Amino acid sequence: MVNKSKPLISVILPCLNEAATITIAISWIKQGLQKLSRRYRSEIIIVDNGSTDNSAYLARKTGVQVIREPRPGYGQALLAGFTRSRGDIIIMGDSDATYDFREIPKLVQALKSNVDIVLGNRFARAKSRAAIPPLNRIVGNPVLTGLINLFYGAGISDSQSGLRALTRDAYRKMDLRTTGMEFASEMIIKTLSHRLTIKEVPITYYQRRTPSKLSLITDAYRHIQAILLYSPTFLLVIPGLIVFLLGAFLTVMLLPGPLYLGRIMIDIHTMIIAILLAILGMHSMLIGIFTRVYLVRVLGIPGGFLSQYLMKYISTELLLGIGLMLFSLGFLVIVAVTGIWITSGFSALARARELIAASGLTIIGFQLTSSALLFGQLKK
């Protein structure tokens, strides 16, 4: 996976007001790279992300490369560093002296075993685990890691570790775009989406010496948003299909008349809820399908088996044909019931069941017909 002709290692650190720790972090990086100097060339890039202290000045005094990224954000700073870097191997970390960069050789060694990205695992050692802030250790990281494992089958322990090593080829394939702290989650999601390999190695993590810059609610929301966005099949399509089938089944069963389950009678009120479930389920499926098409066509993120099936067999013509058929059927039933009402002299009618089902067919038909146009544009 690594270029055999003395490859270049690029170490990239985003920096925002880390004057108290930046020189310590750089010193550790140099010590770690010194152990690899016979086999690798190296460069260190500090990305100043709008510091108002003398972080950038202190970094320059150590002789490393310092670049400025005025656009705020953890991901934005790292992307600027990745773009500037030239390394065959990219190592990213933080400037707050929480990660022991003297362990860089361990990450580089792991990349040699046919691995695309290596994550430093802070939870593998008791002391490192204890150094993580309690809220992040007990709630934040486990929840985000659990979601990534659930939706993407990552099988990892520390999805939010900031110490990582990856190959240049892996970075190019990922096409990373997020600009905030959710960058950490996006990297793992896209690694898995592109069927790249991940390996975790135990690392040393120290307690932060200065106040954290994390925004608990905002950063957590952006992480969860990114995790869910890249998994529309499991988040929207499958749940939507289940809800749609449940609603459609109940509607059909209640169309002839009420159902009796022992002493329980299920009647027209349940039918109204059932048709609503069918409509909402269809809406969820369509949004999920559109999101998947967008991810594949626009962002270049391949999906799994189910996603590939949807992309292959769902077409504009299919959506349009089914939509027009359902819309026409529902509309004709509504017209027929209206005709019966008129011919009866506008008297009371016992046709509520037919109208409920017909209204549902008309709405779902309209959903499919109008969605077909958007689907066609996205799939081009």
Automatic annotation (TrEMBL):
Transmembrane segments: 234-256, 268-288, 294-311, 318-343, 355-375
InterPro entries according to UniProt: Agl6_TM_C, Glyco_trans_2-like, Glycosyltransferase_2, Nucleotide-diphossugar_trans
Pfam families listed in its UniProt record: Glycos_transf_2, GT2_TM_C
Domain of life of the source: Bacteria
Presence of the UniProt keyword Membrane in the record: yes
Listed name of the protein: Uncharacterized protein
CDD domains for this protein: DPM_DPG-synthase_like (cd04179)
Source organism (scientific name): Candidatus Gottesmanbacteria bacterium RBG_16_43_7
Glycosyltransferase 2-like domain mapped to chain residues: 10-173
UniProt keyword terms in alphabetical order: Membrane, Transmembrane, Transmembrane helix
Annotated ranges, domain Low-salt glycan biosynthesis hexosyltransferase Agl6 C-terminal transmembrane region: 289-378
